[in-house]
From TrEMBL:
Gene3D superfamilies: Tetratricopeptide repeat domain
UniProt cross-references to InterPro entries, sorted A to Z: TPR-like_helical_dom_sf
Organism: Durusdinium trenchii
Protein name: Mitochondrial
Superkingdom of the organism of origin: Eukaryota
Keywords: Repeat
Keyword Repeat set for record: yes
């Protein structure tokens, strides 16, 4: 009986590869359907499934959907981790620049929650901010990354690109 029930209720082992395929093929809406299906069948929430759904939204450039899923984690009593937040911030880099304020707020929320940011978090935040023509804010994020020891070539390139978008004088600050 228990084995029969488990066959009717697929585990995350089935869903995660499907969601990965959704991300590769930028099928974010199907990824959200899979998330709803998982929640309906399993009757519980799973951070890997939600994170994989956010990743599908990220790869499709669907910032609003990725952010909405992140906000939904609280209702589902799940705590986001650095990977989930990184996917949401990366989705912001696919936008037209209007996401910079939300991306900066998300970075601040990470710091408030004491989730240690990494180079993906910082480079995505810098890029999202620079797309909003806010090179000074991008530099402030860069300085935070440097102080945290979370800089690499990608973070430097994001900061340089931000300065190039905004002002030549910003390059001197690096």
């Amino acid at each position: 009986m228990a084995q029969e029930r488990s066959l009717r209720q697929p585990s995350s082992i089935v869903y995660v590869p499907l969601l990965g395929r959704c991300a590769k093929q930028t099928q974010w809406s199907f990824g959200l359907q899979l998330l709803r299906d998982f929640r309906a069948r399993r009757g519980k929430d799973d951070l890997f499934i939600c994170g994989s759904s956010i990743h599908a939204c990220e790869k499709s450039g669907q910032w609003p959907q990725a952010l909405a899923l992140l906000q939904q984690l609280d209702c589902w009593t799940l705590e986001g981790n650095v990977v989930v937040h990184g996917s949401v911030l990366s989705a912001a880099t696919h936008g037209q620049g209007s996401e910079w304020a939300s991306a900066t707020a998300l970075l601040c929320a990470l710091q408030d929650q004491e989730i240690q940011s990494n180079v993906i978090i910082y480079s995505s935040s810098i890029t999202a901010t620079s797309l909003g023509q806010k090179w000074q804010e991008a530099l402030q994020i860069f300085y935070s990354a440097r102080a945290a020891g979370a800089v690499n070539l990608i973070v430097y390139n994001a900061a340089i690109s931000a300065c190039e978008r905004g002002s030549e004088t910003g390059l001197e600050s690096l």
